[in-house]
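Notebook, p. 212. Picked up where the previous page left off. The plan for this session was modest: take the two constructs that came back from the sequencing core last week, fold each one, and keep the raw output in the notebook itself so nobody has to go hunting through shared drives later. Recording the first one now, exactly as returned: residue sequence, then the structure token string.
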Amino acid sequence: QANLMESGGGSVQPGGSLKLSCSISGLPSPALCLGWFRQGPGKEREGLAVLSTTGSSTVPITYANIAKGRFTLSEDNAKNVLFLEMNNLQPDDTAMYYCAADLRPGGFCVPVSSSWADPIWGQGTQVTVSS
């Protein structure tokens, strides 16, 4: 029923930019936290940025250090779409990029998935950065 669908990935040269999208539908209840993560070949999953929707935080968007300065999270709330703008991409950014939603209370809306209560994941979109 719940569906998260990433799009916008592809191949770019170093220094290039991409804007990823995540369409969200079929959630049985409103998401408390939305976010972007990635996993490169042979690497662990990394959190990038998250958005709290509860209104309890005075800083709703939180970025991981690896994302600060180059990546920007935004949303179109009316259309239930989450975005991730990525600039000055480098080969180390090559990874599968995933969006996620957390609907269950009790977690923490930070860019660390193990701190979430029960995340729902999309299937991912591939980003490849090479010359």
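Okay, moving on. Second construct, recorded in the same format:
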Amino acid sequence: QVLLVESGGGLVHTGGSLGLSCAADRRGFTVTYMGWYRQAPGKERELVASISPGGASTYAYSVKGRFTISGDNSKEMLSLQMNNLEPEDTGVYYCHYQARRFGRSQIQYFWGQGTQVTVSS
């Protein structure tokens, strides 16, 4: 029962910035993966950025250099700072955790409800 709640989405003009936050109640779980995904209208869900519990991050090529993913050591907050936004960044952004229960080997997948990001021309 990792509960994820995103916030920070909204409407911004091209070149603007938005900061997304994902509050995670992950008590009783060991987090193995954290990431931000997005889904644009008519497109498949895609990885935007991910970060390992140790802090190693990856980015989609299209956002590299513009977005920064970060998380706290408790794994209870995942953030995505988005700068120099482009219309192509428009979509619903989802927080995603992978985690396993203490004493369990199976990894479970958790998703937030999504937050809309709209970048206007």
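Notes on construct two before I forget. The radius of gyration is 14 Å.
Flagging for discussion at group meeting.
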